[in-house]
Amino acid sequence: MTNNRKTLLAALSIHNGIIMDCNEAFTDLFGFTTQQLKHMPVENKLVLSENSEFTNLQTLCTASIATEEGVFATAGMFNHLHYVVAVKLHCVAQGNNTFILHFCIAKNKSIDPISELPNGWALTSRINYLTNNKYLGLKELVLIIIEVDNFSTINYRYDYFVGDQYLVMLGKRLQQSAKDFGFVIRYSNAKFAILIEDHCNLSSHRLMNKIELICKHLCSDLIKPIAISADIEINKSFSIGVSSPGFEYTSYHSMQIAAETEKQKARRYSINKYYIAPPEPTDELLNKKLITDALPLAIAQDKIQLHYQPQYDIKTNKLIGFEALSRWYDESLGYIAPDIFVAITEDIGLHFEFDLWVFEKVCRQSVKWKIGAMVVPRIAINVSFKTMEMSTFIERIQVILDQTGCPTNLLELEITETSSITNASMLSANMLQIKALGMHISIDDFGTGYSSLSLIRNFYLSIDKLKLDRSLIDKVCQTKLDKNFVKHIIKLGKILKVAVLAEGVETQQQLDLLIELGCDYAQGYYFSKPVPLEEVPTLIYASECV
Fold first, then answer.
1. Distance separating alpha carbons of residues 292 and 303, to the nearest angstrom
2. Does 545 score more than 50 pLDDT?
């Protein structure tokens, strides 16, 4: 292909579907030399696009024979790093079953535009190439995920240009650090990854030792500051998660989840430390991913049902209300525990809409019961701190109240402490407006989590009820310390003139002690488990509401 050697277009010469030669431009673009490609079937490296008018390379070449101008197509070309680059292809027949293929890059979706490193798509492509062609199995691959902690502070402190420059220089440092052992990519934002390929078939012990050394080497490199300019030097901490070396993952995705989980663990428990995944299946992690994918549709299609657990005045044994509790059974995933999918709503930013969805469901059901001439008790609805802090929360619930016509005295918002308070002023303002609307407010799981005396001190004027967490009630009869702990929380309620409700009451002994300690209300399996909608009227008719 002498005439094509000096052209700026990348070119391949093929004969009977076998690569015979390539030019310098091709080598520059894809990283292969003639010696590496010669006598290789072209279909090993070139794949036509799915939307191509040609079914395969043979029909493309056949079509080019009929015209001197040749034919054009779009395709994917594997480069020397084994990931696909999208190309435009021009095939020209030379006679005697010989063809020249000219290439130009159509859109290189495998390269990150900021760092100019391969991206996550390139990594997936490379792993698929290695595993599909039996060069390596997932057992011989180890994935290291590296993320800069609180990267956004760079953008805020300096500007986004400095942030981008930092990412470029970090990428170069990682490439330099991993040049002898890994394939470096940038996933997104401040998250990078290194793929380590064990071509030596090391024993699991030797492979683990190698990965440990690599991680220590990375930590020592990353702890050094990065100089953006003479005036700006940035020192950041990192979180590093590693898939289990030598473990036979069922898919790249499960390997990725394992490394990501360990990275999150590193961020939570250490600074500039790496965590390596244990050699065990990641079914639980994969299930979490499946639940995350299914959750938005489950909410949209009303597949999550509300059950109601009654609450009683423990001195009179009269029904005073219900707590609305979400229950989800999926045909594929089975029963999904509420603490799992409720936590996921916060992880994926769906908590606000989910809490409002439950609020609307309860409002509509309360109105139906009232229309049916039932004596409707107050219904407690779980709402997270994150939802209560939203600036549009009051506006949204006001719309629901207007649409449903639900009396506000039938509603209680039970604030669930799934996270710390980030916007105390908005939370305080919203609580005051909730009270002004005529609803009650209770604090759930008091005595655990992020609860604090300062929280109750600051908001007690808006609070009607404290709910003692079931973990406190489980132990209340076991030791004097546990008994006194609950006793003083109940006393705190009396001082603040706030009612106290005990969750998780399961035995007569617990109930008797709570009565002795002055607790006001209780719920739990001793009285009733959460019941489906159709069983609520039976409980209401069986007890005179107060």
1. 14
2. no
